[in-house]
């Protein structure tokens, strides 16, 4: 039976569909942040390969988000959303059966495609369904669900990794994924997008994949292979050479993968830049602190998962507040305030990280990081989506999501590189050994210094993000 799209209940039914998709895809990221040492140990992965257990998903998810945002505008959001959630669910089952690390990495890339389809369609589906006057409330709840996913992710990952085994980090997705597919197929039956039917930008897709892949390869391997390694230099060269070519093609294309003309409007441009920097600054905090508590404090994955809860608890508490404030005040003010709050949290973490740091201060710092991010996300997203032509909302949201994911993947690669760069090569793998890490007492200070340097990089990105958010201009300038 088709759902009546004119019903006042329909927007909330759509929100229930997208919430389940967001919950699953973001849980997947949070669970592995904590379970990474257990998975790496099972497959006897060295430091280089362990990096790619996380980065393979992030890289492909980032590129696919932009691609599928474009495809959603062309062929309709409902169909792609159901396909994406189906792929994500099936591959989650297969990952737990992976016979070796290479099969796991390939399956993670395919899983990333499914997750990208879900994420890139979530905000456009909500924007299409909600009236503008209540859109901020719907987006705020969506961020709240995302916060819940991130809140539960480390705990769920730590629990399964410590008890039932690493396979259940992925297998728990399956029953909920099946439920989500059935619910989406029923609820979104009357929600087919008209689409734009414009040509698909093949060259743009290829260029952005190899350019982004190049910089991630260089960052992830630089500290282990050396910055003069041919592989690292090749990755940097790919990024430096292909990025301007990509931008030139996108600027002149009639149907670009990334509509760079949006950056000609200051309000849009700065909102996108701020989204990237917020993601860059926040994303690595949970990963860094989870590894820190396992490596330095020798906590179990489950205990480390509990220790990083303040980040997502902050997001959980502030998300409803952000939705309310976003409908009353200009995004420039609220988003900038959120970034400033996150910056204070990161600064606290820089000071307290160390063998003798008090957890209460670390918890306060992590809470502020999460609270500030929640305060930033809803108004910043609403400021982008409410003034976009409905036929191009998938592309606009795909660009926003891609930049946020790009911030996440670059942040992860850079922070892991900074943490391990100061360690002797023989000890770099200890970062991924979790609570079984065996560091000589004389080398612990090197690891602590690495964590602090990585957090300083997050703080610098936050400060730049505040400046970008403040100069976006007043709402009337949009």
TrEMBL record:
Origin: domain of life: Bacteria
Pfam families listed in its UniProt record: MFS_1
Record has Transmembrane as a keyword: yes
Record localization: Cell membrane
Keywords carried by this UniProt record: Cell membrane, Membrane, Transmembrane, Transmembrane helix, Transport
Main location: membrane
Gene3D superfamilies given in the database record: MFS general substrate transporter like domains, Multidrug resistance protein D
Matches recorded under InterPro entries: EmrB-like (IPR004638), MFS (IPR011701), MFS_dom (IPR020846), MFS_trans_sf (IPR036259)
Classification via CDD domains: MFS_MMR_MDR_like
Entry keyword annotation includes Magnesium: no
Chain segments annotated as transmembrane: 12-30, 50-68, 80-103, 109-127, 139-162, 168-188, 200-219, 225-247, 268-292, 304-326, 333-352, 358-377, 409-427, 447-471
Domain Major facilitator superfamily (MFS) profile: 14-477
Membrane topology of this protein: Multi-pass membrane protein
Name under which the protein is recorded: MFS transporter
């Amino acid at each position: 039976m088709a759902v009546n799209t004119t019903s006042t209940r329909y927007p909330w039914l759509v929100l229930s569909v997208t919430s389940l998709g967001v919950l699953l895809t973001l849980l997947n990221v949070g669970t592995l942040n904590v379970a990474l040492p257990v998975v790496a140990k099972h497959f006897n992965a060295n430091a280089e390969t362990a990096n790619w257990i996380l980065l393979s998903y992030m890289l492909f998810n980032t590129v696919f988000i932009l691609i599928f945002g474009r495809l959603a505008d062309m062929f309709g959001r409902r169909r792609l959303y159901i396909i994406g959630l189906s792929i994500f669910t099936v591959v989650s089952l297969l990952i737990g059966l992976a016979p070796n690390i290479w099969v796991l990495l390939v399956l993670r890339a395919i899983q990333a495609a499914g997750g990208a389809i879900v994420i890139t369609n979530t905000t456009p589906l909500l924007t299409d369904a909600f009236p503008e006057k209540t859109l901020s409330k719907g987006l705020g709840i969506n961020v709240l669900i995302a916060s819940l996913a991130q809140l539960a992710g480390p705990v769920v990952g730590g629990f399964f990794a410590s008890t039932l085994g690493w396979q259940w980090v992925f297998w728990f997705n399956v029953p909920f994924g099946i439920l989500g597919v059935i619910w989406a197929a029923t609820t979104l039956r009357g929600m087919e997008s008209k689409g734009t039917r414009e040509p698909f930008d093949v060259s743009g897709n290829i260029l952005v994949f190899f350019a982004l892949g190049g910089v991630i390869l260089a960052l992830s391997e630089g500290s282990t292979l050396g910055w003069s390694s041919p592989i690292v230099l090749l990755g940097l060269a790919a990024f430096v050479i292909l990025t301007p070519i990509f931008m030139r093609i996108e600027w002149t294309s009639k149907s670009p993968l990334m509509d760079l003309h949006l950056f000609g409007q200051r309000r849009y441009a700065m909102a996108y830049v701020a989204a990237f920097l917020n993601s860059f600054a926040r994303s690595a905090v949970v990963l860094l602190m989870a590894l820190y508590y396992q490596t330095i404090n020798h906590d179990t994955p489950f205990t480390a998962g509990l220790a990083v809860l303040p980040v997502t608890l902050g997001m959980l508490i502030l998300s409803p507040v952000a939705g309310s404030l976003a409908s009353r005040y200009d995004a420039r003010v609220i988003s900038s305030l959120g970034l400033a709050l996150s910056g204070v949290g990161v600064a606290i973490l820089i000071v307290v990280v160390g063998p003798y740091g008090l957890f209460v201060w670390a918890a306060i710092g992590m809470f502020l990081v999460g609270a500030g991010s929640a305060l930033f996300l809803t108004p910043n997203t609403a400021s982008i989506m409410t003034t976009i032509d409905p036929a191009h909302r998938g592309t606009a949201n795909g660009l926003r999501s891609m930049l946020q994911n790009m911030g996440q993947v670059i942040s992860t690669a850079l922070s892991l590189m900074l943490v391990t760069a100061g360690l002797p090569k023989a000890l770099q793998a200890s970062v991924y050994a979790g609570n079984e890490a065996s560091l000589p007492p004389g080398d612990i200070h090197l690891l602590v210094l690495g964590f602090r340097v990585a957090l300083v990089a997050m703080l610098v990105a936050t400060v730049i993000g505040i400046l970008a958010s403040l100069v976006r201009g007043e709402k009337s300038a949009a």
